[in-house]
Amino acid sequence: MATGTAVAWSWTEAMPTAAPPLRAPKPRKAAASASGAAGRRKRRRARSVKNIEEAESQRMTHIAVERNRRKQMNEYLGVLRSLMPASYVHRGDQASIIGGAINYVKELEQLVQSLEAHRHARLRDDCPVSGDVDSAAAVPFLDFFTFPQYTMSVRHAPATPAAGALADDGGGNAADDDTTSGSKQSAVADIEVTIVESHASLKVLSRRRPTQLLRIVAGLQGHRLAVLHLNATSAGHMALYCLSLKVEDDCRLSSVADIAAAVHRILETIEREEEEERRQQQSCT
Asked: Do the Cβ atoms of 49 and 43 come closer than 8 Å?
């Protein structure tokens, strides 16, 4: 019995000695996990620091670019202001300078048109015979049009035989569609329209008629085209109208061709009504 007791005690005594090797790996795993977490935190800190540095660098670059842009804009505004008479700029802010420049350019445009009218009158007086006057003297303001959508002049028509054949419909009749220059032949006016964003520039050269300009402006407003600036110059029996237009949001005329066609219809209506009135007067007499 004593020996059995000793064996039992020896077995129970061996259990505590065998347990530590089973729990020994746990501290090593915890240490490895702690070192891995520390490494990840370091990498995250490095990435965050790098992102902060990149964001700061981008911000400083943007500030420098914006500073240079404002400096250049102020220099240009100063030059623009120096080119205008002082009466056109009431304040020194950007809006006043640009608005004054617009008015100044419009007045210069009016002056150029007036000088062209005087030149045409002088040429007409010097060359009373129509055969001695070139097309520029016979019809004033032709040089003010570059690519008109409608034209009364042969200057924009095809000059070569091949181009003339293209303008013919194949049956010996001239086509009513666009010529090779992109201009449609018109019996009432030269019309040129250009558009930049929501602003349009309109030039009309036609025969002088009573209340014609008033009806053009009213027709444009009916199409939701607001008139911002207007210059009118006459030379002999011809009149040149230059208008700056604001295309309203609800305007249905979305292209230069649409605006030119609308203006051409207005002038055709004026021409037709004038002819009817003339016939009525002749019938009464």
From this structure: no
pLDDT surpasses 50 at 238: yes
The tokens for 32 are 């490895």
Q: Is 144 helix (H, G, I), strand (E, B) or coil?
A: helix
Assess contact for 113 and 141: CB atoms under 8 A. yes
Q: Could you say which DSSP state residue 184 is in?
A: E
Q: Rounded to an integer, what distance in angstroms lies between the CA atom of residue 42 and that of residue 36? A: 10
Question: 53 phi and psi, to 5 degrees?
Answer: -65, -40
Distances in Å between the alpha carbon of 206 and those of 115, 125, 237, 250?
A: 18, 21, 9, 29
| Fold entry, domain 99-284 | Alpha-Beta Plaits (3.30.70)
- Is residue 72's pLDDT more than 60? yes
Output the 3-class SS for 186-254: CCCEEEEEEEECCEEEEEEEEECCCCHHHHHHHHHHHCCEEEEEEEEEEECCEEEEEEEEEECCCCCCC
DSSP label at residue 183: P
> d(Cα 184, Cα 190) in Å, to the nearest integer?
9
Q: Which residues, other chains included, contact 138 with Cβ-Cβ below 8 Å and sequence gap of 6+?
A: 130
Model pTM score: 0.65
The number of helix segments (H) and strand segments (E) in the chain equals 8, 6
Angle (nearest 5°) at CA 242 between 224 and 114: 160
Tens digit of pLDDT for each residue in 147-192?
999 998 755 444 444 444 433 444 444 444 444 457 899 999 999 9
Q: Please, which residues have CB within 8 angstroms of residue 186's CB and are 6 or more apart in sequence?
A: 150, 151, 152, 264
pLDDT band at 125 (very low <50, low <70, confident <90, very high): confident
Mean pLDDT score, 115-123: 84
